[in-house]
Amino acid sequence: MAAATPRDGPEPVGHDDARRAFEEAWGAGRLHHAWLLTGPEGIGKASFAFWMARVLLKATGADSTAARRIAAGSHADLLYIARGVDEKRQRMRAEIVADDVRPIGQFLHRTAAEDGWRVVIVDGADFMNRSAANAILKILEEPPPRAILILTCAAPGRLLPTIRSRCRTLRLEPLPAARMQEVLARVAEDVAPEEIARVAPLAHGSPGRALALLAGDGAALGALVARVLETPPDAGAMYDIAESVLKRENGFPVFFDLLCDAISKHARTLALRGGGSADGASSARRMAELWRRLADLRAETERFNLDKQQALLNGLTLVSGR
Asked: What SUPFAM superfamilies does the entry give (predicted)?
């Protein structure tokens, strides 16, 4: 499946309030030196950050030289920082470390190559360890002129309060159904419309999760969910399942989306088949309660950035005891 990346330069779809706030600040010449983009995983924070960068670097025209350099990762006035890949474990590294952010200081204090703004995007700032966060804080305390930091973050509670207080926050909300269809039709052009229509409701307003569901990860995680519901795993199998889920980018939210959706459908089926009987109603209520507990577990884990492996193990234990 071919899909556009945040670097490729599509105009943001949705997030109108955040876009309006930035455009008003830009138009009035009152840009804050640091912006914090928050919202659920896969909501489009990185895409919005690159759109901001293209505005600042006069690269909004898709065919402009500046836009092509941004897409290629070669624009001299744009620096992108994110977690790297752990080659040994074949998964994203757990943290952004001090060595990752160290180039920012030198980058921001040099003269802009095109006599304009210098832009730094730190994608996934909530993954910074303490040393990296302190390095960013020092930059925020003494911001150089005509330099902008854009931090994206799914769990702002993990950031130092002193970092949050020095940024202007823009909250990106889940996209409504019509906007989801629009985004997915654009970034997944080779996917059939009926497949997009099937997946979109499972993604809860997150294009990133929808793309994961459309890709191989969605199929693999769907197979895991089916296996869990058909044969509740023992303790050893639970650890294997948790490890398999966490290997995948966006694996945790996608797995919970699929699991909760399957349980919700099962609860509805039980309610309909029960024909009003006490046993049928009781089974449906048990499944509905399981759905609620899993949804609460997932929301609490993401909100407070709790241990995702432990959350998965707790969720699988709930399913096994249903």
From this structure: P-loop containing nucleoside triphosphate hydrolases
